[in-house]
Amino acid sequence: MSITNVDQQEFAQTVASGFAMVDVYGDGCAPCKVLAKVVEQMEAEYPFINFVKINSSHNEDFANQYRIMGVPTILMMFDGVEKERLLGVHSADKLMGIISKYIY
Questions:
Q1: Looking at residues 26-41, what average pLDDT do you find?
Q2: Vertex 30 angle, CA 78 and 67, to 5°
Q3: What CA–CA distances, in Å, run from 40 to 19, 53, 70, 78, 95?
Q4: Measured in whole angstroms, how far is the alpha carbon of residue 71 from the centre of its chain?
Q5: pLDDT band at 46 (very low <50, low <70, confident <90, very high)
Q6: Residue pair 73/39 in contact by the 8 Å Cβ criterion
Q7: How far apart, in whole angstroms, are the C-alpha atoms of residue 20 and residue 43?
Q8: Rounded Cα gap, residues 49 and 40, in angstroms
Q9: CA distances (Å), 70 to each of 16, 46, 62, in order?
Q10: pLDDT at position 1, please?
Q11: 61 within some domain
Q12: Can you give the pTM of this predicted structure?
């Protein structure tokens, strides 16, 4: 898999089955750019994980529905249901520790 950039119309279908780690980011967000590098590194190491990105600035209905209060926000989704949420930049090790609960 690769990192899938979606809009609010594509989101539900993209995360409907299995596990997905969703990177919610915004325009001009410096921490979002740092997290993007972490996610890119993770995607290279773990290509079997469904990594999804969605821009909250361009998808306001999504941001309202999921009550996104700040970016970056990471949503851990399983079968279309949010299981966990993290705010801010986190290490790949911390993120993999959470992801491992859902994929192993």
A1: 97
A2: 40
A3: 17, 11, 21, 21, 13
A4: 11
A5: very high
A6: no
A7: 12
A8: 12
A9: 24, 27, 13
A10: 67
A11: yes
A12: 0.95
Tokens linked to 4: 């899938």
Tell me whether residue 24 is exposed, middle or buried, using C-beta atoms within 10 angstroms of its C-beta: 0 to 12, 13 to 18, 19 or more.
buried
Joined together, the tokens standing for residue 46 give 């773990």
Domain count for the chain, please give it: 1
Mean pLDDT along residues 63-69: 98
Q: Please, where are the H alpha helices in the chain?
A: 8-14, 30-45, 60-65, 92-103
Provide the CATH number for the domain around residue 58.
3.40.30.10
**32 within domain boundaries:** yes
* Mean pLDDT, residues 80-91: 98
- Picking from 2, 99, 104, 98, the residue whose alpha carbon sits closest to that of residue 50 is 2
d(CA 8, CA 67) in angstroms, rounded, equals: 14
94 occurs within a structural domain: no
Token pair belonging to 43: 């995607």
23 is in which domain, residue-wise? Answer: 4-88
